[in-house]
Specification:
Shape: elongated
Number of strands: 3
CATH class: Mainly Alpha
Order of helices and strands: HEHHEEH
Number of domains: 1
Distance between the termini: 8 Å
CATH topology: Arc Repressor Mutant, subunit A
Helix content: 40-55%
Number of helices: 4
């Protein structure tokens, strides 16, 4: 039986809000900022900070555009992000099975 290694959890994902963001984005092709904010139930500023951390890690791609002079931010999970989230979930499951 492998060692019980809770320290191998991806700490970047293992934040309540970042886990929720990844869970939302894993199930859709792309989502806009307001959709994610509604699903995660957080503030604009808090969501922005967490999205930036995930983007900096290469887990998300963020694009911005203007529609009728209003900014619109869209996010999508990258292949790297998908692999990281899958590994994160598998690792949590392995800890629960110990």
């Amino acid at each position: 039986m492998p060692e019980f290694d809770y320290q191998a959890i991806d700490e970047l994902i293992h934040s309540r809000i970042r886990t929720a963001i990844m869970a939302v984005l894993i199930s859709v092709e792309r989502a806009d900022f307001n959709f994610i904010k509604e699903k995660v139930n957080t503030t604009d500023g808090n969501l922005s900070v967490h999205l930036k951390k995930l983007e900096d890690a290469g887990y998300l791609e963020i694009s911005k555009e203007f529609i009728d002079r209003k900014p619109k931010t869209n996010c999508r999970i990258t292949e790297k992000g998908t692999r990281a989230f899958d590994a994160y979930i598998r690792h949590l499951e392995s800890l629960l099975m110990k």
